[in-house]
Amino acid sequence: MNSNSSNSNNQKKRNFQIEAFKHKVVVDPKYPEKTWKILEHAIQEIYNHNASGLSFEELYSGTHVSHYGIRVGTIRRSNSELIVGLEHAYCQTGYVGVVVELAGQTTLNCLILIIRMLQGYLVIEFEFLSCFRNAYNMVLHKFGEKLYTGLVSSMTYHLKEMSKSIETAQGGLFLEELNRRWIDHNKALQMIRDILMYMDRTFIPGNHKTPVHELGLNLWRDNIVHSSKVQTRLLNTLLELILRERTGEVINRGLMRNIIKMLMDLGPLVYQEDFEKPFLEVSADFYRVESQKFIECCDCGDYLKKAERRLNEEIERVSHYLDGKSEAKITSVVEKEMIANHMLRLVHMENSGLVNMLLDDKYEDLGSMYNLFRRVPNGLSTIRDVMTSHLRDTGKQLVTDLERVKDPVEFVQCLLNERDKYDKVITLAFNNDKTFQNALNSSFEFFINLNPRSPEFISLFVDDKLRKGLKGVSEEDVEIVLDKVMMLFRYLHEKDVFEKYYKQHLAKRLLSGKTVSDDAEERSLIVKLKTECGYQFTSKLEGMFTDMKTSQDTMQGFYTNHGAELGDSPTLVVQVLTTGSWPTQPTVTCNLPAEMSALCEKFRSYYLGTHTGRRLSWQTNMGTADLKATFGKGQKHELNVSTYQMCALMLFNNADRLSYKEIEQATEIPSSDLKRCLQSLACVKGKNVLRKEPMSKDIGEDDSFFVNEKFTSKFYKVKIGTVVAQKESEPEKQETRQRVEEDRKPQIEAAIVRIMKSRRVLDHNNIITEVTKQLQSRFLANPGEIKKRIESLIERDFLERDNADRRLYRYLA
């Protein structure tokens, strides 16, 4: 090889150039055959483990260049450029002449190479490189086809020999021999590919042949894996090992991983067709039989645990030695055979199904059911439907149970307990699933409204809690109780009915001073109601608190002006109530004791003198009194009683015995109220400051009453409550319902006018829909009542019917 150089020191780096010696080459006619024999021998030696383990890729990297027959070269650029040039020149001639000239930076390897060449260290040419040169020249001289077909033939022969060795392996040695031969084949394939690198890069792409490495895999597939004596045996062995692992035996997972990896390396179709598809079919059969066995002998909870364990085992199996893409497929098989096919039987399983889990608070089993059923189509909807059905049946029994409705507080507490129970189930077992929350809300709304007295009972529950107070309970716990009440309130269709009762009960608590709870607790609930339903819902309730504060200021003014002249008169406390804010109460006449009557007149004069244009009417049925009483042996007590009770007791200052009719005539208290009043004074053990004849629990018109001189109590202050029906009587209930219906009429009319003012023209059905939607936050409007209100508005010229279509209404400005 000739190389040009210049003596000029100023000349810059020149282009790198290596040329082969130019001489005439005469090709021997037997050259292809001879050369192929050399290469065939080399391939045979590789398969027989007689070749060096050094691959040409290492030679090509430049780290071992000095080990070959390089004599002289020119270096002006990089190490990699040198190697490419040397490769080309060497493969054509077998010799390379080098003139050394350093220009620019060189790598350490390059410097070492140059020094060794200059010192004259020549090494014997490595046989491996000779093979590469022979393959290179065959391709260069247009014998690539012979080289390629020879390669196929030679590899096929060696693989058939390997197949015989694998076929003769017995028992557990079969997979080990297959794995060992596969490792050998891969090593051989790597070395063969390195020798035939030039063919792989030039001849194969140009002639659309299969690359050497891929060819080696295909030949392995066709001659080994798809061999008639190997293919079925391989599949059966793999499936048998997996079955043994499923039944608790320990298998060689490393070997399994290698064999499965071999199938994956041979291509997705080989893995899928030769293993995955049969594996899934066998697994389906296995789990079909096992699930049937389990469901016959296990309860629901145990079955779910076994299914969960099997599912986790399959996921673990995939992670250890199967293709990751198989996970979804094998889990789908387990889910179908163990869950989907037995879903209905599991949820309805006698004594252990979903309903029993709910009844017995089996949160762990419920969680397992949820996590497994969510994996299959319609799984969660199946759980949800069964839970909803059970909850509605349970709730319906609860709200229609005649024993439970006798105690409104217990009735509501049962509702809250039921709600707490299912909230816990959804939180602990159902992952706070919103669809289950919605089903729970829907169910409660369904059965709470089956009992028309639910609004009244919820108000009575609140009344009970706030009367007794929540002493010793933290502020957070108070908020929890009130939030639970609000939760039930949201389910009510007739929120305006609740408002009616709540207003009545709040009025009694405020006026009787029987609210033990902090004023903040009362106001907290009103704030929650206001947030839920708007200002209009609570404006009158807030007005009640305003009246109580104003009344305190009024009483201070009264005693400031008249305190001196009142002397030893009884202490009077008056609450002045604004008529529109408080529940409508019938004005009931009652003859107050003379000393109280005079005091009330003084207050009337004071109040009307300071507030012009107002009118006062006394509500004696809503008042209370504190009396000091001395009994037979001189025992003294302070009695806290109602105004009616005070009027009855004060009569005994002037009489030892009075008949029922005498008391009724003297006080003019309505008969029903008087009977409850006397019953609480004479028939309640521990509070019976009066005695009656004849003795009985009920008050008769022929009864007579006298002071119980033997009355004693360990308390100085004795509170005597009036015996009242906690629930309304039937006439009272009808009266409340009538007032509610009357209050709804203007609200329905206002909604109709708002809608028509906005829409101008609307048909009957759409008006019904819009009005119902607008008013649903307060009550569920009756379509019949809406129609009546429309007719009323037409009569008053707010609306008119369309002349052409009588179902259309027009708004009249």
Record the SSE blueprint.
Elements: H1 31-47, H2 56-60, H3 79-93, H4 108-119, H5 127-140, H6 144-168, H7 173-195, H8 197-206, H9 212-225, H10 231-246, H11 253-265, H12 268-297, H13 300-321, H14 326-338, H15 343-347, H16 354-359, H17 363-373, H18 379-400, H19 408-428, H20 434-448, H21 454-468, H22 475-491, H23 495-512, H24 519-533, H25 535-566, H26 594-610, E1 624-630, E2 636-642, H27 643-650, E3 657-659, H28 660-667, H29 671-682, E4 690-693, E5 704-707, E6 717-719, H30 730-759, E7 761-763, H31 764-775, H32 783-795, E8 799-801, E9 808-811
Parallel strand pairs: 2-6
Antiparallel strand pairs: 1-2, 3-5, 4-5, 7-9, 8-9
**Percent range for helical residues?**
55-70%
Q: Assembly type of the shown chains?
A: single chain
Q: What's the overall average pLDDT, rounded? A: 81
Strand arrangement in the largest pleated sheet: 1-2-6
Distance between the termini: 111 Å
Tell me about the largest β-sheet. 3 strands, mixed
State the secondary-structure class. mainly alpha
Which term fits the overall shape?
Answer: elongated
**Count of helical stretches:** 32
Instruction: Say how many strands there are.
Output: 9
GO molecular function, one term: ubiquitin protein ligase binding
Keywords: Isopeptide bond, Ubl conjugation, Ubl conjugation pathway
Organism: Escallonia herrerae
Pfam families: Cullin (PF00888), Cullin_AB (PF26557), Cullin_Nedd8 (PF10557)
